[in-house]
């Protein structure tokens, strides 16, 4: 089959890799790079993870992948917890940033970034995927791994029987602050501080020193505001957000000067309530919805959802 995967985040890349062994797979993403929330940004001489900061492993499927990454130095152990949460489980990160994981998965795949999908139209033979420049790509099967509200909007012309509780699922919003410093930060070892992201009394849910983490040669801190704070300030302009966050960041920047500060907004940072199944499948129309909404907001959940999506598409050939 010819399969189009919309979304080059972790779930989409995992699904594409699994399917590429037996099928012709094309991955489309509107971003400038693959990875979705496996995102790493360069600011001058600094390198900062500004989406997912780390991941843990509980199941065998991801463990096999991580063992391969460790052997090839694509990933490494950052630490075994933060402050009072040191529970012995390794916290893994990309050796050069979390985006390295996505780039490794994308190796050898036909991934086209900067491609904004406008709509997906069912045909007698499968689907027409329409890009915003008018290009039409014909495909036999379709996997959508972008946030479900976006996937639903792409499929609205198809009139599929997608459960309303699924496409109306809500996502948390997260506002991030990326700072580059002129001296080491005041973040304690091992370079990360974790709070309850739902705590309205805390300004930040996570604070990460990217130099202590080992991905930046220059002192640089990533701050993720808590979910309540992000929701309350979502419509603030960028300058206001930067000033507010910098003021709250002072305990972690310490005496160091802030050389540069950038604000990043994650509109779909993670599901409020995950869907209980690892993906949603319409066998008749050969379409699958997948992503971190379906198996939980963590990296491992997105990985499992990608595997489930690939298995579902493989089943279409037997139908």
Structure description:
The protein has 319 residues and is of the alpha+beta class. The chain folds into two domains: 2-39 and 54-169 and 275-316, FAD/NAD(P)-binding domain; 171-271, Polyamine Oxidase, Chain A, domain 2 (Alpha-Beta Complex), CATH 3.90.660. It has ten helices and 18 strands. A six-stranded mixed β-sheet has the order 7-2-1-11-18-17, with helices on one face. The two termini are 13 Å apart. The mean pLDDT is 95.
Spell out the key features of this protein.
FAD/NAD(P)-binding domain, 5-stranded antiparallel sheet, 319 residues, Polyamine Oxidase, Chain A, domain 2, alpha+beta, 2 domains, globular, 6-stranded mixed sheet, 10 helices
Set out the fold topology.
Blueprint lengths: L1 E5 L3 H11 L3 E5 L11 E4 L2 E4 L10 H12 L3 E5 L11 E4 L4 H8 L3 E3 L4 E6 L4 E5 L4 E4 L1 E4 L3 H8 L8 H4 L3 E11 L10 E3 L9 E6 H4 L6 E6 L1 H6 L5 H16 L4 E14 L8 E3 L4 E3 L2 H4 L3 H18 L3
């Amino acid at each position: 089959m010819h399969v189009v995967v919309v979304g080059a985040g972790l779930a989409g890349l995992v699904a594409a890799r699994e399917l590429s062994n037996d099928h012709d797979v094309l991955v489309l993403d509107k971003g400038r790079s693959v990875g979705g929330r496996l995102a790493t940004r360069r600011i001058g001489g600094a390198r900062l993870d500004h989406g997912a900061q780390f991941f843990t492993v509980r199941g065998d499927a991801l463990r096999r992948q991580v063992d391969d990454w460790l052997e090839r130095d694509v990933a490494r152990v950052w630490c075994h917890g933060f402050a009072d949460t040191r529970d012995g489980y390794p916290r893994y990160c990309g050796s050069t940033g979390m985006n390295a994981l996505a780039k490794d998965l994308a190796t050898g795949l036909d991934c086209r970034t900067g491609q904004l999908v406008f709509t997906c139209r069912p045909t007698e033979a499968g689907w027409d995927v329409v890009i915003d420049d008018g290009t039409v790509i014909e495909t036999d099967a379709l996997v959508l791994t972008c946030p479900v509200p976006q996937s639903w909007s792409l499929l609205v012309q198809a009139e599929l029987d997608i459960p309303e509780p699924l496409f109306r699922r809500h996502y948390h919003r997260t506002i991030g602050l990326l700072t580059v410093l002129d001296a080491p930060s005041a973040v304690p070892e091992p370079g990360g501080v974790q709070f309850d992201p739902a705590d309205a009394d805390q300004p930040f849910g996570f604070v990460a020193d990217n130099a202590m983490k080992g991905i930046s040669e220059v002192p640089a801190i990533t701050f993720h505001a808590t979910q309540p704070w992000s929701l309350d300030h979502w419509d603030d302009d960028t300058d206001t957000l930067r000033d507010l966050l910098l003021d709250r960041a002072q305990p972690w920047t310490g005496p160091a000067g802030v050389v540069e500060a950038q604000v990043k907004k994650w509109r779909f940072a993670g599901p409020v309530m995950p869907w209980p199944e690892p993906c949603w499948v319409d066998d008749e129309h050969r379409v699958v919805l997948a992503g971190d909404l379906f198996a939980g907001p963590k990296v491992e959940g997105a990985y499992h959802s990608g595997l489930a999506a690939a298995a579902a598409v493989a089943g279409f050939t037997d139908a």
